[in-house]
Write a structure and sequence with these properties.
alpha/beta; 170 residues; Rossmann fold; 18% strand
């Protein structure tokens, strides 16, 4: 898709992504694979594709699903993020379908390694509430983040209504 947009429209080679749920999972994996993705804002998503603590039956992976997990699962492939794309998760604090713990652990692990010198580029924002839902403040934060990024104002964003930001407070 990025190659197509570059060819068809001559747009910037720096790309931002915003996706929800499984799309959010995919956007994080894509940010690890393609350095042109400089900003990813996954919502109600996880980087631990095993989803420990979920209230849903995960089931057994078939051969294709297992190969995708083995090759692309973000939490087990931290080295893919050494180029330090800006990643800002937005999850519900008490989501039992996709527990936010995976995104928090991912942020903490990257801040301790590849993002050590750029901790502000990695955030896990937990919005109050339960359920695998998309509250209005997630939309508002996403719009503000992309507006600030596109205008060049995105330095160290702090989303409104943040309950937890991964790593130590700065």
């Amino acid at each position: 898709m990025i190659d197509w947009a570059l060819e068809q429209y001559g747009v910037s080679a720096e790309v931002g992504m915003y996706r929800i749920s499984m799309g959010g999972d995919i956007s994080v994996a894509a940010a690890g694979l393609d350095k042109r993705i400089v900003l990813a804002v996954p919502a109600i998503a996880t980087t631990d594709w095993l989803r420990p603590g979920t209230n849903e039956s995960v089931g057994e992976a078939d051969e294709v699903a297992q190969a995708c997990y083995d090759e692309l699962n973000p939490l087990t492939h931290l080295e893919c993020y050494a180029h330090c794309s800006r990643i800002i998760f937005q999850n519900r604090a008490e989501d039992q379908q996709v527990p936010p713990d995976g995104s928090v652990r991912f942020c903490d692990a990257l801040r301790a390694t590849h993002y050590r010198d750029y901790p502000e580029k990695m955030e896990a924002v937990l919005h109050a509430g339960a359920g695998h839902a998309y509250p209005p403040e997630m939309w508002e934060n996403k719009v503000a983040l992309f507006r600030d990024y596109l205008s060049g104002r995105l330095q160290e964003p702090r989303c409104r209504k943040t309950l937890h930001t991964c790593g130590s407070p700065r």
